[in-house]
């Protein structure tokens, strides 16, 4: 019997009824071999054959000379950040020493940039397929990494293959799969096998044709190949299937009628020792070692070799590297179902000890303890709580799941529940699950708590809603806590700091400054330095908004000094975000970029992923100030992607506002409308943000589409607030003249004068900031038509790095110039600047309103009629270097761009040219590129 079974196993190599699906996967891996990247998602229920298709696909890749990194995810992956992707890449064949560091890294967010660079370098030498089966169990940081790496490596020959079942819903891996499909990546859905395919599969397993008795019984498996194969294999093993004259037929009684009974009969076909081995191994929800299962059975590993041979011959267990696993988790679960309660409890208690000894995830230990009775559950709750706090920085959704699991174990009336609730509220909010956080917190508050516990819970709720951008609700929770005189001073300092930031984004500047001052003083007195740092950054925000730029810088500089000296939680507040913002407003753009560079590096070291969208936002602002619009857009796009991946939707709002304004400047109004619509979807959920990010973005687009009257209606409140809140002009001095243009063209001279007065007052309060003096001159010159004011604005803007502000001043000076020759020169300079900056809307306006001169035409690079001629100068530069064989990272270094900008350019290039990857781009450039002699003669 074992020989016959082994023979059957060796025959099970073909695939039936999957020709279409296999063709899709083979094309995908062949595309990688030919230099094209991409992503394919395979969806289907458990046992439907996804794993087999993935194996065939990776075998095909290997035959084509493509490198392979493959792994199946397991349910326990969720508590070990980056384990799914890192483990897959550690199996990379041929091996890649450049990613060996993944074994030792602590799997924080900072690894993603390094990982992307390593994979790009590898793929530049050899195409790569990364295949992850059971992707629904992927851990959260792996899901985040994949979400970033799929588009980042789209131009490289890296093919991603994922297989997942559509349940359970809501896991990070499942959400990623849904997103990849929604984003338009290739999707294959597996259905049940038809009758012909079932016949072929049965015949292959048996090694002979089958008659209708076999097919009738197999029909009860609903075309599920795993169940069909297990059924026929079990019948063969138990002697209930006989072959005569080359035809297999079913004989006997008590034939299996369900998958459970199929597995039950399969077990009865094995020796009692093999059954005992399998039942013990079934408590592991992952691949297991021989030593591990030997400890459960309290025997020496060598004594299990016979049983292991029997179980693998029956294809219940299969090798998995140096370990073993069940052929499918459905089989494991069916075997596990045969354990009685007492035996299962004992095995889980032993498995917890094995997991500890092997250094497995604490969550795995906890899961075993939860099944060992009340004492084990208590210990498990502690482990789950500690694990949640540990993984929270890298995997907030996973952390929320763990702590909610712990609360569920305790039950609603357990005395030990309350300390967990405050942490749970914060973690749930970080994962974007506000309704659950609110309900959980309010339920606990109704239970009657001591002052400290209640304050901690209200603090957790305030932080939760502040993180989610629900700032008014955050203020309400902080108010409730601060009203209690018995709140400890350390907690009070944190509450003041949270309320300060929430009040700022609720447009209560005076209250925000008062709370920021209280947080600073209370925090220093109570030794709660993180609260002091956060309070000071709130005061910096307020001062910036009010146009007190030196104060904004001083508060942020003081906060940074405390954080650098104290470290710990204070450093996690990243005050350099606001220090760089103040430096940029003071025209110290080089210093701001250095501050952001240092802050981002520190953020990567600390693993504080929450701050990443903010670094992108502020860096985008510096690029925009310099007129580097492509760079600014790429930074903002990357920031939005990270914010959505982290479910930090509040941080996506200002980034979408930035993208809206840039798209208008670049003359791409449909794209601007798409960004604005996305922003509106976020703010419709109750998220609040600074009007300079939301209202101004909407008005800029309205002015471009519907004219100044529509924009003025949106901006009315911003105009009226300008004397007290001139931050828009502080952030973008060119906005002063733009505000005057909008109001004047809409016939509202009072508001035009208000904008001029705000700009002049801001300049007078900050006499050392040249761009603000230039902005005031520009705004007043537009209102009064004074050519000397406009000339002064031009000369002042020349002394700043703000090129587009200079171009706007040049445009207005040219329009009002009394000297025609001078006007023509100013217009030519403005056109040259906006053309170089890719400010297409300004270029078209200049050429139309001033009647030329047009920007000088560049010598053609590509032959006439080439599709490459539609590329922008920036895209053309990237395309030429990619065609020369440079990686994205090398292109970025050569052109002094960020990697995000190069990725963004390539995506746009591929879309414009309707090509799939670098190879096609290189071939197109080679075909259509003019040599130097041809360019001179053109």
Give a written overview of the molecule.
With 938 residues, this protein is mainly alpha-helical. A hairpin with a 2-residue loop joins β7 and β8 (247-250). The N and C termini lie far apart (81 Å). Residues 1-13 have low confidence and may be disordered.
CATH-assigned homologous superfamily of one domain? P-loop containing nucleotide triphosphate hydrolases
Estimate the global geometry from the Cα principal axes. Answer: globular
Mean pLDDT, all residues:
88
CATH topology-level name of one domain: Rossmann fold
Helix percentage range: 55-70%
Number of helices: 49
Give a quick set of tags describing it:
disordered N terminus, TPR-like_helical_dom_sf, LuxR family transcriptional regulator, 5% strand, 3-stranded mixed β-sheet, Serine Threonine Protein Phosphatase 5, Tetratricopeptide repeat, Rossmann fold, mainly alpha, 66% helix, 49 helices, 938 residues, Sig_transdc_resp-reg_C-effctor, 5-stranded parallel β-sheet, nucleotide-binding
Question: How would you sum up this structure in a few lines?
Answer:
The protein is mainly alpha-helical and 938 residues long. The protein contains 49 helices and ten strands. Among the domains are: 2-10 and 195-261; 18-189, P-loop containing nucleotide triphosphate hydrolases (Rossmann fold, 3-Layer(aba) Sandwich), CATH 3.40.50; 706-849, Alpha Horseshoe (Serine Threonine Protein Phosphatase 5, Tetratricopeptide repeat), CATH 1.25.40; 867-937, Winged helix-like DNA-binding domain superfamily/Winged helix DNA-binding domain (Arc Repressor Mutant, subunit A, Orthogonal Bundle), CATH 1.10.10.
């Amino acid at each position: 019997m074992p020989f016959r079974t082994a023979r059957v196993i060796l025959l099970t190599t073909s695939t039936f009824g999957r020709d279409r699906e296999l063709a899709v996967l083979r094309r995908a891996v062949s595309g990688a071999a030919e230099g094209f990247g991409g992503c394919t998602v395979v969806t289907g229920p458990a046992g439907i054959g996804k794993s087999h298709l993935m194996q065939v696909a990776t075998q095909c890749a290997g035959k084509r000379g493509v490198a392979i990194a493959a792994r199946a995810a397991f349910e326990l992956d969720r508590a070990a950040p980056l384990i799914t992707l890192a483990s897959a890449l550690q199996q990379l064949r041929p091996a890649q020493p450049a990613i060996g560091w993944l074994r030792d890294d602590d799997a924080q967010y900072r690894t993603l940039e390094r990982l992307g660079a390593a994979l790009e370098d590898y793929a530049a030498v050899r195409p790569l397929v990364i295949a992850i089966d059971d992707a629904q169990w992927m851990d959260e940081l792996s899901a985040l990494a994949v979400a970033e790496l799929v588009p980042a490596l789209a131009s490289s020959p890296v093919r991603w293959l994922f297989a997942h079942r559509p349940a359970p819903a809501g896991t990070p891996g499942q959400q990623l799969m849904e997103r990849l499909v929604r984003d338009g990546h290739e999707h294959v859905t597996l259905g049940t096998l038809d009758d012909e395919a079932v016949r072929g599969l049965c015949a292959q397993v048996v090694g002979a044709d089958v008659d209708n008795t076999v097919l009738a019984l197999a029909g009860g498996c609903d075309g599920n190949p795993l169940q069909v194969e297990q059924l026929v294999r079990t019948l063969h093993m138990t002697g209930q299937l006989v072959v005569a004259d080359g035809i297999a037929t079913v004989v006997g009684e008590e034939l299996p009628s369900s998958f459970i009974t199929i597995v039950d009969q399969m077990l009865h076909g094995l020796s009692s020792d093999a059954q005992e081995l399998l039942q013990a191994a079934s408590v592991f929800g992952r691949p297991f070692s021989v030593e591990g299962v030997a400890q459960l059975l309290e025997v020496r590993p060598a004594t299990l070799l016979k049983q292991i041979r029997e179980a693998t011959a029956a294809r219940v267990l299969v090798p998995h590297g140096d370990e073993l696993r069940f052929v499918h988790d459905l089989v494991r679960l069916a075997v596990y179902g045969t354990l009685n309660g007492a035996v299962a409890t004992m095995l889980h208690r032993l498995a917890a000890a094995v997991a500890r000894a092997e250094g497995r995830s604490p969550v795995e230990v906890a899961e075993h303890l939860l099944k060992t009775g009340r004492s084990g559950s208590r210990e498990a709750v502690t482990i789950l709580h500690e694990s949640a706090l540990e993984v929270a920085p890298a995997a907030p959704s996973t952390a929320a799941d763990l702590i909610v699991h712990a609360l569920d174990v305790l039950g609603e009336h357990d005395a030990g529940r309350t300390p967990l609730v405050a942490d749970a509220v914060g973690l749930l909010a970080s994962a974007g699950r506000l309704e659950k956080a609110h309900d959980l917190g309010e339920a606990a508050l109704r239970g009657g708590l001591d002052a400290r516990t209640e304050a901690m819970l209200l603090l957790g709720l305030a932080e939760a809603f502040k993180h989610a951008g629900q700032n008014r609700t955050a203020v309400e929770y902080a108010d409730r806590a601060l009203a209690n005189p018995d709140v400890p001073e350390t907690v009070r300092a944190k509450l003041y700091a949270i309320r300060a930031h929430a009040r700022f984004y609720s447009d209560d500047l005076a209250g925000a400054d008062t709370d920021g001052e209280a947080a600073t003083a209370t925090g220093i007195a109570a030794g709660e330095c993180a609260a002091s740092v956060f309070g000071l950054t709130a005061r910096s925000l307020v001062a910036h908004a009010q146009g007190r730029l030196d104060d904004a810088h001083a508060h942020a500089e003081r906060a940074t000094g405390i954080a650098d000296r104290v470290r710990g939680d204070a450093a996690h507040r990243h005050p350099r975000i606001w220090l760089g913002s103040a430096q940029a407003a003071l025209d110290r753009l080089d210093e701001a970029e250095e501050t952001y560079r240092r802050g981002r590096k520190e953020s990567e070291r600390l693993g504080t992923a929450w701050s990443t969208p903010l670094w992108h936002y502020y860096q985008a602002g510096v690029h925009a100030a310099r007129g580097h619009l492509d760079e600014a857009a790429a930074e903002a796009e990357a920031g939005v992607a990270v914010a959505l991946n982290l479910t930090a939707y509040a941080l996506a709002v200002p980034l979408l506002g930035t993208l809206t304004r840039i798209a208008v400047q670049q003359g791409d109004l449909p794209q601007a409308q798409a960004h604005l619509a996305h922003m509106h979807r976020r703010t419709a959920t109750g998220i609040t943000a600074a009007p300079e990010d939301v209202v101004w973005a909407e008005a800029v687009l309205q002015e471009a589409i519907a004219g100044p009257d529509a924009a003025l209606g949106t901006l009315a409140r911003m105009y009226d607030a300008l004397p007290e809140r001139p931050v828009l002009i502080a952030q973008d001095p060119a906005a002063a003249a733009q505000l005057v243009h909008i109001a004047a063209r809409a016939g509202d001279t009072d508001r035009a004068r208000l904008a001029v007065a705000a700009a002049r007052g801001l300049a007078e309060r900050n006499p050392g900031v040249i761009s603000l003096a230039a902005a005031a001159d520009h705004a007043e010159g537009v209102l009064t038509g004074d050519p000397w004011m406009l000339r002064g604005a031009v000369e002042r803007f020349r002394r700043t790095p703000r090129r587009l502000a200079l171009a706007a001043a040049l445009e207005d000076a040219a329009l009002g110039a009394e000297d025609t020759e001078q006007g023509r020169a100013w217009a030519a300079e403005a056109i040259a600047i906006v053309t170089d900056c890719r400010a297409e809307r300004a270029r078209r306006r200049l050429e139309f309103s001033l009647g030329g001169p047009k920007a000088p035409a560049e010598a053609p690079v590509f032959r006439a009629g080439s599709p490459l001629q539609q590329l922008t100068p920036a895209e053309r530069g990237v395309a030429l270097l990619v065609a020369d064989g440079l990686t994205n990272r090398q292109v970025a270094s050569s052109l002094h761009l960020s990697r995000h900008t190069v990725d963004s350019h390539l995506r746009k290039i591929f879309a414009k040219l309707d090509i799939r990857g670098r190879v096609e781009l290189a071939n197109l450039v080679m075909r259509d590129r003019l040599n130097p002699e041809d360019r001179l003669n053109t």
